Structures are given as C-alpha cells and as structure tokens.
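Our collaborator T.R. sent over the components below with a one-line note: 'Predict the complex.' Nothing else. No constraints on interfaces, no templates requested, no preferences about which chain binds where. So this is a plain run: every listed entity goes in together, and whatever single assembly comes back becomes the starting point for the next discussion.
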Amino acid sequence: MINKLIDKITNLQAPIVVGLDPMLAYVPEHIKKAAFEEYGETLEGAAEAIWQFNKKIVDATCDLIPAVKPQIAMYEQFGIPGLVAFKKTVDYCKEKDLVIIGDIKRGDIGSTSTAYAVGHVGKVQVGANSFYGFDEDFVTVNPYLGTDGVKPFIDVCKEENKGIFVLVKTSNPSSGEFQDQLVDGTPLYELVGKKVAEWGEQHMGKGYSYVGAVVGATYPEMGKVLRKIMPNTYILVPGYGAQGGKAKDLVHYFNKDGLGAIVNSSRGIIAAYKQEAYAKFTPEHFEEASRQAVIDMIEDIKGALSE
Amino acid sequence: MINKLIDKITNLQAPIVVGLDPMLAYVPEHIKKAAFEEYGETLEGAAEAIWQFNKKIVDATCDLIPAVKPQIAMYEQFGIPGLVAFKKTVDYCKEKDLVIIGDIKRGDIGSTSTAYAVGHVGKVQVGANSFYGFDEDFVTVNPYLGTDGVKPFIDVCKEENKGIFVLVKTSNPSSGEFQDQLVDGTPLYELVGKKVAEWGEQHMGKGYSYVGAVVGATYPEMGKVLRKIMPNTYILVPGYGAQGGKAKDLVHYFNKDGLGAIVNSSRGIIAAYKQEAYAKFTPEHFEEASRQAVIDMIEDIKGALSE
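Returned assembly:
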C-alpha cells in the first residue's frame, strides 16, 4: 500500500491528501436541508448530510489526488449513524481507487491494539469466516504506550500490505508540552522518530516503509531534523493552510528524490467555498471550489519544491 | 459523576471496576451458538454474542460493583455491528445505574478532541436538537498531544458533570520506552501526572477531581510517587490479576481516606469460568463464576487495605 501511495503521488505529481473532516458547519445549507428533510434534525440527518457532502467533494477531486484522510472523530461525534457515514465514505473512496488514511489516532496495548488494528486495517475472524470492519489502507497511531502498542498494528499491516503513520510531532500549539521535553539533550519527539525508523525496518516497501510518521507543518525546523533521523519513513504532514503551515516550510520534509512526504489539507479544501478566494463558486457549487483549492495547493507545493 | 462514583464505591465497599472487554474467545459456546444460529457467523452474529455475554455478566454482578469499563477496541474490531453492541452495553449498564468508564484512549487536538468529547461524554448539536452519541460517564484520554488535546474533554465534561482518566503510566511492559524517560531527572510520567493534577483543579468534585489518571498496577513504586504528586486525583488502576498486579501492591494507590483509586479487572472477572479456581461453575453458568470472582476480588483488595 505504501508502494501504491507513492505510485499515485508520482503519477499525479501531487504529494497531497485531502482531509475529510466534515464538521456540520462546513456543510452548505442546501445539502443539510435535503438531508434534514429526509431524516429530520437527527443523528441520521447529520450523518446523511456529511456523507453527501463528502461524496460531492470526492467526485470533484478524485482524479487529482492520491489519497484522502477521513478524521473519524468528526463521524464518531454523531454516534452510530456517524460511523456508518465514515464507513460509507471509506467504501466510496475505495471505489474511486483512492488510498485511505484513517485518522483514528488509536493506541492501546497487546490484544487491545490488535483489536483496533484488526478492525481498521485487518480482518476479524468470526467462526469460519473473516470480515473487514472499516478497511482503511493506513491508520494513524499514538505512540505513548510504546512498542507494545504499535507492534500489533505492524503485525496486522504485514498480513494485509497496509500501513500506519505514528504521531511523532503534532501540529498543535501545545504539542511541545511533552513531545519537546529534553531527554539527555534530545527532545522526546526525536526519540519517538528513532523508534519509528526502527519499527519501520520490520515492514519495508520500495525505498520507504509501511510505518510512516506524523510531523506537523507548523514546526519546520523539527521536520528538517526528523527527515534525517527517519530517511526511509514517509511523513504525513498536517497543519498546512488553515493551521498556518506554508509550502516553503515543507521543503525539508521531502527527500532529494522528491518523495517522502504527503501534505494534508482539510478545512482549506473541503470548506474552500467559505474563503474569499473561492467565494465566486458560491455554496451551491462548493465542490468546484474544493477542486480549485486542490489545484492551487498542488501548484503551491510544486512551486516551493522546485525552488 | 466523580461524586457518584465515590458514593457507590463507599456504599458497596468496593473500589473496583469490571472491564467489559469481550473477546470472542471468552464467550462460552452456548452463547456463541445461539447468536450464530440467529445471525450466522457474521459481524452481526459476533456482536450479538458479545452483547448477550455482557448482559449476563452485568446482571450477575451489578449489585456488587460501582462501575464497568467497556474497552471500545473489542467492539470496534467488529465494525459497525460491534459498535452497536458497545452502545447497547453502555445503555444497559446505565439502566442498572452503574458508572460507565468508556476505555477509548482517544486524544487529538482542538475541534477534533471536542468532537470525540461530544460523541462520548457530551451532546452533539444537529439543527435545533442535541443528541448523546455514546453517552459514557467517563472516558480515558491519551495525553501525548498536550493541553490542546485534553482541555476540550474537560470543557465538555464541565457542562455534563462527567469526567476523564488521563493515561499517565500504563501497565504494559514497554510503557517505559517513552513514559519513563528522564527529563532533568524527572520521569516523563511524573510530568504528565503533575499536568493531570493541574488540569484537575479546573473541575473539582467533593475532594476529588473529575480529571483522573490511569496508573498501571504493575508499577507499584511509581504508583506510590504518583499518588503523592496527584493528591486529589482518582487513579484508575489496570493490570490487576491477569497482568500480574497483586492487591498488596495496590495499597499505595489509595489515600488515607481509603479512597482515591479504583482497580480494574477484565479477563479475571469476565472469563473467570476458564480459571481452575472457578471451573466448578462450568461454562454454562459462566456468569456465576464472574460473580464469585468479583466477590473474591473485593475481599482481596479489602484484605490488603486493612493490613
């Protein structure tokens, strides 16, 4: 799956991923109205609204992008109906041959981590049969519990040719509270980065590992260091655009082969129609605003990389 | 909700919580057979089996225990049907007036953490209406992303009189990989513990905070130190029994008032019938084995605390 991701990135010349994090406030009125008319102002109505919203964005952008990253929290907040919309979104993106990075940030120990891995990137056994629960291609994983928490994901990924992205340095303002603490002069995120590189050796694709890392766009100097510590690790980069990360800051997240990083934008793409720059598309044609925002993002990053 | 938890612990003289982590391998054949006859060897069949298993255990133990801790991973592995069984279990335990600690170990940033909080311990707004998604009383939270990740949970909990338990020192063998790293001579888990105490001041109940901590039974010396660092923090203690933690090790997790800690057992209770000590109950009466295991666990801890 890391090979497929890299092939798609190379063919499309687009090291980007669209974050499908549909807050209800992003969904245009006409979509919400239709959903609420059918299901009422209920969890089912909200789930239908975000699913229809996603579908339009996927239809309008899937020929330009290698991957999507649905953020499961935005679905989970609507309980079971929300998670049904998450599953529909994953299945639909699979039909469109997109690589799906489930942003689930799970992490537990032993058999519990195995259960998460089985549910999201593997198959669960029921009697004589086995089933995919959610069936993403990659998931994000929290490293706080150490190797016991991460290894079960790697084991399941090996069977399925799937992968993970481990949180190393997150994009938020307070990420440094624990992640930047110095251990014998080395910040914790570097120790985590070293472990990610080590875990990654257990499951290698062509040049890059199935075990990737999350490093926020908002900390470019740290990204530069982490790039060197983890040479064969794909870096998933949140924080571009709405959170303040700029294309020129992202150059050092890439290797000299032009690969090694994939940059996420969520709000900046899916709620593009709310920005002044894309207002001309109007809320009725929000998906065209998203398409234009994808084109602009690809150009922006390409420009920075070619400098 | 922390007050309710403490009242129930005091009235029942039982500082324990039963972990509802139903792996299919724990479910006796007759329960599985009935479920598979109705739904086939499918995700729905598996979900029915774990739900019926839970129901019997809850019925057999609910008059003895203050709380349950369903581990969501064990349900999530069965996809949507599994999560429906999780929700049914939460609702059923609520009917029985048990305090429900959702062991979800979520953690993200800003609006994403808010979404998790809203879905699990709060209400989500849909148009003019609001709905509970899963509606646990407490959830476990991962601290790796810092205050940005935890604060949104606290904000939602304040509105709802609910609470969280933040992972401080987990019970697994490799938990030390990052958690024990020394920062200016202080292990990271102590820094996290200090933050938990600080966060807890924002949302206090009677003597104890709505912001609790998870500290594994397998590291009693660290538990002793953390108890002092977080005097007003309730400690949720996993790792008793099956993972090797013994009652005598747990004494220092409690304060002098006899409160301050709640000890979890999962496998040791729900799969008690598989242990030699409870084999006489037979798999057909597994729930009676669970009841006896609860009684024995309460005695074991009471004995250790009175010494």
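Summary for T.R.: Residues 2-306 of chain A form a domain with the TIM Barrel fold (CATH 3.20.20.70).
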